[in-house]
Amino acid sequence: xxxxxxxxxxxxxxxxxxxxxxxxxxxxxxxxxxxxxxxxxxxxxxxxxxxxxxxxxxxxxxxxxxxxxxxxxxxxxxxxxxxxxxxxxxxxxxxxxxxxxxxxxxxxxxxxxxxxxxxxxxxxxxxxxxxxxxxxxxxxxxxxxxxxxxxxxxxxxxxxxxxxxxxxxxxxxxxxxxxxxxxxxxxxxxxxxxxxxxxxxxxxxxxxxxxxxxxxxxxxxxxxxxxxxxxxxxxxxxxxxxxxxxxxxxxxxxxxxxxxxxxxxxxxxxxxxxxxxxxxxxxxxxxxxxxxxxxxxxxxxxxxxxxxxxxxxxxxxxxxxxxxxxxxxxxxxxxxxxxxxxxxxxxxxxxxxxxxxxxxxxxxxxxxxxxxxxxxxxxxxxxxxxxxxxxxxxxxxxxxxxxxxxxxxxxxxxxxxxxxxxxxxxxxxxxxxxxxxxxxxxxxxxxxxxxxxxxxxxxxxxxxxxxxxxxxxxxxxxxxxxxxxxxxxxxxxxx
Amino acid sequence: xxxxxxxxxxxxxxxxxxxxxxxxxxxxxxxxxxxxxxxxxxxxxxxxxxxxxxxxxxxxxxxxxxxxxxxxxxxxxxxxxxxxxxxxxxxxxxxxxxxxxxxxxxxxxxxxxxxxxxxxxxxxxxxxxxxxxxxxxxxxxxxxxxxxxxxxxxxxxxxxxxxxxxxxxxxxxxxxxxxxxxxxxxxxxxxxxxxxxxxxxxxxxxxxxxxxxxxxxxxxxxxxxxxxxxxxxxxxxxxxxxxxxxxxxxxxxxxxxxxxxxxxxxxxxxxxxxxxxxxxxxxxxxxxxxxxxxxxxxxxxxxxxxxxxxxxxxxxxxxxxxxxxxxxxxxxxxxxxx
Lengths: 495, 338
Hints:
The complex is a heterodimer of chains A (495) and B (338). Chain A is of the alpha/beta class and 495 residues long. Chain A contains 14 helices and 20 strands. Chain A has 2 domains: 4-236, P-loop containing nucleotide triphosphate hydrolases (Rossmann fold, 3-Layer(aba) Sandwich), CATH 3.40.50.300; 240-343 and 387-493, P-loop containing nucleotide triphosphate hydrolases (Rossmann fold, 3-Layer(aba) Sandwich), CATH 3.40.50. Chain A is globular and about 65 Å long. With 338 residues, chain B is an all-alpha fold.
């Protein structure tokens, strides 16, 4: 009989009077890779909190390692020995890998740290999983993939029997993800359990033994490996499917014969050489990087943190600077957190796009009134005097995309637009991006992981350190690996 | 969302920082009345004039530091720039240079320090605390060196009594409509800076940098230029305060402006300017400097010791910042709309 590692039984947890998770049941066995698909991400933060800390429950029981650690009757606010690996690193910067793994733990009793000894102790672990990371590396110098591996290793060495991986695919490339899956399987075979949280079913299909579907703070369904098939999610994603299918079948007026609005000609910067590609008016182009370093360089270039060392950028045939170009807009990942000015009201937030074209917007009440009039019906009259922290995520998202619309750029670069978004939110982002495309604004999606990007893409470019390695037109999307979300639509329908 | 229009009062209160500014104004009025009830001389016309005149220094310094704080930075060199401005102008006038030339040289010197601060913080991304700590010592060093490590003689010895009096009257002792010129200078600067901050693109860029520097950069804000501009504003205000101090004393004092940068922080944060950046109104700074000066003036008038004055002011500053942090953490925040 398999040994149970973790169980949540009928758990209801309430925060500030609002139920975060309700009647929540989840069981994880020893050596199992359990998938948790976020159909709707509501309650996931509370769930992650409850995994680590035994907070007061409204109802239910929590068991870890066969012992009841929390219940509605009593709680001790004690911590469970569970590791959670997510976007935010839990490693201490300024310290080496070996120090993070061995020194930063309870029970480390050596007064004097002996780096060579720590290094020697760590080497077999890396050898075991076939990864070459120096124990002396400072953690801030690790790539994201290496950081995730070090966090897993730390959990293993600390003896945490359950390791939670939260949306790791949004941070690493496909090749790195495959390697990570190997490491997970390796440790699962040794008896470690994993909870693999993802927004994409295709990913869960690849790695998990069982999968649970989370929606509105409840586990809706748990399925075993033999039951895992794509059709099982049909009810949940039907609306999105129809939306994407409709979009793919309809011609948006995009034609490859149109002229290029923006061209990169042999652009080079820190670790990236000879990047050449063209973006056509109203086109959705996806740039996928297989290397996190190249992705970071591209992000640095977009964020104006990196300068081009060679090549040029042409806009409608004329050489232009990327920096401060009003015809180019950049949307960072998780824009509702990164692109908002929380201390400015919504009107000011909105006007930032237009101010690049109409500088007197700040002193002209007339222009602001006309914006109020034009967008008031859509956004609501009192929207303009509110502040972003008084808006829902969806309203914030609309605010940002409307800001871009007001700026009326020719090209919008979006860095991982679907990152961290659950299904309803992804649908909303998808609609917002479609709105930009409909206005003939070219959208360039920069991704390490495809997420929902191919549901919109007209072309896909693979990029590595030496530039574009492969161009895939929409007609060939059906040949993409099955792990890519939405690939099946192209495969089945021959779109 | 409903489509009803908000009434203007609610809209005014809804402006970020307005609540804190109005609270500071209310605090100022309460303090003023309280001190007046203890000692009725506080209500006298002469005292009000003196209060306004003394307040002008804190208002100018407060404006300088508020601009910097709103961008999420700090300027520790303000006090030293004040000293440098006072010493350069006084030394030159004591040596017979025309006051206009002395003022110009002081202004250029302060602008140079402001420019260096702006470049160090904006272009080279040095932590503002360290960058301005360095220029604080440099500017104070210049203030010491400019007259050979001693205070200057009276400015009238160089430019003559009449010119000296004119200079002193223009910046400090003279009055228009029974209000001292020092306050008029501060008020004019306040109005200009208020306009810049609330009605111009630069003003919005200043708030945007303090609110979210990455988003500001991606929205086309020139971070280096805007950061430099705020440090230049700080330099101009500091220079003016230096000239006021020089006019007040009729000479240059090497220690002029000592700790003024902290008075500026105090005036700003009491009035609701957030030391974390992005929030604050100059109206609040006006109220903050009024609170500060009323406390100093009132505690003086009721015979409180200097130690008590500092203690009370210190507590108020800590409470103001604490309130800002609590509000930012959302403990008093309004509920999010679904």
